[in-house]
Amino acid sequence: MAHIPEIVGHPLQNAFSPVNNTDETAQLYLETDCAGTSTTLAAGSEAGPLRLFKSVVFLAE
Description:
Helix content: under 10%
Order of helices and strands: EEEEEE
């Protein structure tokens, strides 16, 4: 699990425009600590500014 440094300590802010530069699938969560609703971001892909998230976990393939 990874926290987004830019929003740590700012509970009302979200990260946005994720880019997955890894070889693993990323699971993006709308809540901290990888809780709540999630979205999958494939390895090597990116999403636009409307894709909001607060935490991420990378899934080994």
